[in-house]
Amino acid sequence: MLRLVRSQSTLAIASASLAVGVLGSLLMVVAYTTYSGPAAAPTSRDLVTAALWLGFVQLLGLALAVGATVWRLVVTRERDDLWEVMVAGGAMLILVIAGLVIAVSIGSAGGNVVLAVGYAVWAVLLVAKAARRSLLEHDDPQERRQAPYWLLAGSGLLVWAAAAGVPDPSLDDVALAVTKGALATVGSVAVVAAVSLAHGDGFLRFRRFRLLAVAVWLVVGSALASLVVGAVVFGSPSFDALRVGFPIPWLIQGVGSGLFAAVAWGQVYEIRGGPSYPGGHGHGHGRGHGPGDVVRASGAGPVSPPPAGWYFSPEHGGERWWDGEKWTTFQRSGPIPPAPEGGPPTSPE
Question: What is this structure's pTM?
Fold first, then answer.
């Protein structure tokens, strides 16, 4: 799963796709804020249609991003994570189909159902990851616990899938609107909690985590705004209430998508500047970080490569085993006991 955030091509495509999503959210904001009555309905509908097609393009781009990782793993014959990434690709394909159905037939319940299936596949994938980690942690007590984070995130996505499957409510159906918003809020809070707890335990450590934290909290904010709008605006809505209330969740979502795009592109920049050895200067514009990142006062390059051990690797967003001469394929997302002298790490991920 972590392979999806360690590939430069995947992150670049994802960043561009999320930027398209920002434009779609802004069109939704314009569509609702400019709606002044039946006379403006055709224009608003055209804007909504354009926004939904942009949403489809965003999902298609994200699916291509996952596909890029699948192709990389196939070419390099790295089979350890291949099945997980392939399932993720299948989930994205389902979401693409959902986006197409929603764009072609606005208001159709079929699009919501397919969307729910796509999110549910993601949820099952995360729960399965939690089960695998749990078995590994049970067999090796020295392994740091990750399973609860994957399980919490998977549970949140499952609730989010339930929210996506709820039909879009009519303007007079307050109960359905509130239910949909409440489920989305609970699901997003669970995912944010998993991300926050994982960071607190040292599993998510990278430069732009604060930006990522703001982005995921904006997901909660968008869902919560939908809940509030459902409770306040639905029932007996006025044109003013529609113009003020409906754009708010989309505006928050657009800002969040923009921040996610910035985080993804920042990681691309970090990978491009990744070090050729722990703490060394990268081949791109960035700079390595780690025990060896010592620069002489004269401005000369870093000191000689450090001895074998675990060091931060920007390319992988975590720590990687350095054998004293070159990077190996062993990776981890949290500290584990040192490897035996002259041997590989005890529990590579």
Answer: 0.77
